[in-house]
Amino acid sequence: MPKVTVDGVELEVPAGATVLQACELAGKEIPRFCYHERLSIAGNCRMCLVEVKPGPPKPQASCALPAAEGQEIRTDSPMVKKAREGVMEFLLINHPLDCPICDQGGECDLQDQSVAYGRGASRYHEHKRAVTEKYMGPLIKTVMTRCIHCTRCVRFSEEVAGVDEIGALYRGEATQITTYLEHAAKHEMSANVIDLCPVGALTSRPYAFEARPWELKKTLSIDVSDAVGANIRIDSRGREALRILPRVNDDVNEEWLSDKGRFQVDGLTRRRLDRPWIRRDGKLVAASWDEAFAAVAKVNPGKDIAVIAGDLVDCETMFAAKALAGALGSTLLEGRQTGLSYDCSNLAAVNFNSTLSGIETADVVLIVGSQVRWEAPLVNSRLRKAAKAGAKFFVVGPEWETTFPATFLGNDLSVLDKLPKAAADALKGAERPALILGGAGLGKGALNGCLALAEKYKLIRDDWNGFNVLHMAASRMGGLMLGYAQPGGIADLVAAKPKLVLALGADEVDFTKFADSIVVYIGHHGDKGAHAADIILPAAAFSEKPGTYVNTEGRVQRADKAVFAPGDAREDWTILRALADALGVSVGFDSFDELRGAMATAVPALGHEGLADYGALPKAAKAKSEGVIEAYPIKDFYLTNPIARASETMQRCSAELLHGEEFAEAAE
Amino acid sequence: MADRHLEPDTPELRARWGNFAWTKENAAKAKEIIARYPDGRQRSAVMPLLDLAQRQVGAETNTQGWLPIPVMEYIAAQLDMPVIRVVEVASFYTMYNLVPVGRFHVQVCGTTPCMLRGSDDILAACKARGMHKGHTTDDGLWTLTEVECMGNCASAPMVQINDDNYEDLTPQRLDAVLDALAAGKTPKAGTQEPGRHTVEPLGGPTTLTEMVSANHDYRKEW
């Protein structure tokens, strides 16, 4: 713990801290461009210069200088001021100063820091450098003349994303940042370089020229594109959500966000259900709310009602639907739309027990039937971190392109009973062994085999729980906590032949099996569920209602309402409350607060934010693992949910990045 | 330097260089180069391999050689590293040619010492022979580049042609060198000053003269 003095204030800093971190601990702001907490240190922008004694009598780059015992650091001396002005002047020499037409304007590090630390005026009269345009795909808009060569994007793609595709070509003033041969950036977290870019060189292409940051209302929310529950901020103007940015939460998403979570936002304004529809003579016709409720009341299902929850719904909606079904006397609830039927009697067995931040510390990881890169890109970045710390990876399932060294053990699940020697030895010798079971594994009934493995290799230890199930739906853990699981999965619902099926944004269900039932679809997009519905009640998307979500590690998180739902659409719980009136039953709540209160009473863990406790893992039954994983459930990373499918950006990503279609660039 | 660029990745380029592979001798050399570095650090061999590839391309095309994209991909695959990292290295160092060059790559130093000793005349002499900066002559013989300091300031001005330096140049001496090269001869590399061997002072030493015949302790004279 070295002791240093920052501007006359003595403080102790952690061993291994840099001078920049010491200054931050002392509450001093150090301007910087290339330094980023989650990336390696480059030390090439020189903006963080400070005066350090003892040392050479010149300013030093604080980001790359280790704090040492007895250092006297000054951040307020004339030398530092002059150094910052000098560096800023050099940075601005080749910067175009086109802030009025730059999307970064208002949230630009270079802008802010040149105001705070730069000279008042320019002394530069020579020609400025110009850089030819670079193409980086449908998500990242580039204006490379603005680039100041901080190399954050290069380091991000190499270190965090694990896909080396961005590089700095040429040298000196001629340096250019580009993807290899100007191919599109092709990984699931590529757009994070937009946030990382301290200037306007890399900006969001779909959001280009949409709004200025000061016009936007910022709402804290939770991402629903996968089961990670990334913390996001929805920026909206008027009734439209314009963009989604990640928030910092070290326990969940650090400060990254998958491309789908970020850019499905334009799907929120397209293909929306904005009025009730009723199917008459095989055709859907627009109706009023009263007509729609009357149509539901006419079905009068009694206890012959089943509820299917979709992937994106919040806990409040599911609880309200459960209360409605319960009031009618039914417990036919299911959330696993595609027919999975794994045992949910003990939720610890279907939870990501290591926690998302904990999995980084694993030293041997066995992945069973999960293509982590597509199912949870943010978990994949954690696994990459573990791999960089020396973890070994073994994967059961079809091969996919990992961003870390991994050994594939084949598709046959019987391998679980008898692991190859290398994997078995690694697990035996590991201090923090972990297993990740994904959707493909669950679908083939690998849960029991994995539990047996957990016992055999002692995955659960005093301070470590290495048994993990990686879900793909934002609603999954919340749904399971609320009892949206039948022993036989959705087949039980089919077998019960309900008169009325309440589909809560359920778009992945095979509705042909419910041909004899009246399907009431409560949801926000005109997708597969709405096509199969008999009555459509338009509801709110995740950005249009407050909600509770539980991510795959059992973390209860709350999202706020950013904008109002379009047209006649209403928040889901109000629809269900009104349905209760239409069907003549009482659900026991009249306001959102009462609903939340009732939910917290029924399932206490949903009442407060943070990790839910599911207790100990169940004992594995004696059974053989068998089956072959032929494919992973996600066929197209960019089009996994109704919002993404409605999004033009995601459609284009799918066509261009996954299916190799060529798009001519509009002349600019 | 600012006008360096990669040769565009066209189907013709792929057709010409797509199946680039080491010759037998170069494959052995490449193996030997990679073996110089510890296991898992074979990336360190990227610079010598790029040089080797450039020479092989040169031998195949009877030029100084250059690095087409498929060749860089070949090296990246051999070293198990991302292609962009190879391109970064190749584009950083100016002695890797990114576009085709001629039989002789005439690199004229134009940095201050050479400039003071007459590099402008050298450049003019090159131009008089039909060379243009950054271009290859139509006969494919010469490519002219102006470069920064090559470290031969004591025998300025100088040019580097492929692997050899020619120093103490005047336009006439340069013409003699270029004529010899064009005629397929191998002119003497190094200084072109008659009577000079390396960079020793012309006409004998002017400083430390006491040291010529025997060791001399200058300290008492300070």
Automatic annotation (TrEMBL), chain A:
InterPro entries xref list: 2Fe-2S_ferredoxin-like_sf, 2Fe-2S_ferredoxin-type, Mopterin_OxRdtase, Mopterin_OxRdtase_4Fe-4S_dom, NADH_UbQ_OxRdtase_75kDa_su_CS, NADH_UbQ_OxRdtase_ferredoxin, NADH_UbQ_OxRdtase_Gsu, NADH_UbQ_OxRdtase_Gsu_4Fe4S-bd
Entry's Gene Ontology cellular component terms: membrane
2Fe-2S ferredoxin-type domain ranges (all copies): 2-79
Enzyme class (EC, first level): translocase
Entry-linked CDD domains: fer2
The 4Fe-4S His(Cys)3-ligated-type domain, residue ranges: 79-118
Molecular function GO labels: 2 iron, 2 sulfur cluster binding; 4 iron, 4 sulfur cluster binding; metal ion binding; NADH dehydrogenase (ubiquinone) activity; oxidoreductase activity, acting on NAD(P)H; quinone binding
PROSITE patterns from the UniProt entry: 2FE2S_FER_2, 4FE4S_HC3, 4FE4S_MOW_BIS_MGD, COMPLEX1_75K_1, COMPLEX1_75K_2, COMPLEX1_75K_3, PROKAR_LIPOPROTEIN
Reported cofactor(s): [4Fe-4S] cluster; [2Fe-2S] cluster
Record key words, sorted: 2Fe-2S, 4Fe-4S, Iron, Iron-sulfur, Metal-binding, NAD, Quinone, Translocase
Top-level taxon in the UniProt lineage: Bacteria
GO BP annotations listed: ATP synthesis coupled electron transport
Cofactor note: Binds 1 [2Fe-2S] cluster per subunit.
Pfam family, one: Fer2_4
Catalytic activity, reaction form: a quinone + NADH + 5 H(+)(in) = a quinol + NAD(+) + 4 H(+)(out)
Family: Belongs to the complex I 75 kDa subunit family.
Biological function: NDH-1 shuttles electrons from NADH, via FMN and iron-sulfur (Fe-S) centers, to quinones in the respiratory chain. Couples the redox reaction to proton translocation (for every two electrons transferred, four hydrogen ions are translocated across the cytoplasmic membrane), and thus conserves the redox energy in a proton gradient.
PANTHER family: NADH-UBIQUINONE OXIDOREDUCTASE 75 KDA SUBUNIT, MITOCHONDRIAL, RESPIRATORY NITRATE REDUCTASE
Name the record gives this protein: NADH-quinone oxidoreductase
Organism of provenance: Novosphingobium arvoryzae
UniProtKB/TrEMBL annotation, chain B:
Superkingdom of the source species: Bacteria
A biological process term (GO) from this entry: inorganic cation transmembrane transport
Catalytic activity of the protein: a quinone + NADH + 5 H(+)(in) = a quinol + NAD(+) + 4 H(+)(out)
Required cofactor(s): [2Fe-2S] cluster
GO function terms (MF aspect): 2 iron, 2 sulfur cluster binding; active transmembrane transporter activity; inorganic cation transmembrane transporter activity; metal ion binding; monoatomic cation transmembrane transporter activity; NADH dehydrogenase activity
Cofactor remark from the record: Binds 1 [2Fe-2S] cluster.
GO CC terms, sorted: catalytic complex; membrane protein complex; organelle envelope; organelle membrane
InterPro entries: NuoE-like (IPR002023), NuoE_dom (IPR042128), NuoE_N (IPR041921), Thioredoxin-like_sf (IPR036249)
Keywords: 2Fe-2S, Iron, Iron-sulfur, Metal-binding, NAD, Translocase
Annotated residues for binding of [2Fe-2S] cluster: C109, C114, C149, C153
PANTHER family: NADH DEHYDROGENASE [UBIQUINONE] FLAVOPROTEIN 2, MITOCHONDRIAL, NADH DEHYDROGENASE UBIQUINONE FLAVOPROTEIN 2, MITOCHONDRIAL
Recorded family membership: Belongs to the complex I 24 kDa subunit family.
Descriptive protein name: NADH-quinone oxidoreductase subunit E
